[in-house]
Amino acid sequence: MPISLYQAAIPAFVQQLQALAGVLDKAEAHAAAKKIDPAVLLNARLFPDMFSFVRQVQLVTDFAKGAAARLAGLEVPSYEDTEKTFADLKARLRKTIDFLQALKPAQIDGSEGRDVTIRIAGNPVTFKGQSYLVNFALPNFYFHAATAYAILRHNGLELGKRDFIGAIPGLGA
Question: Structurally, how many domains does the chain consist of?
Answer without folding.
Answer: 1
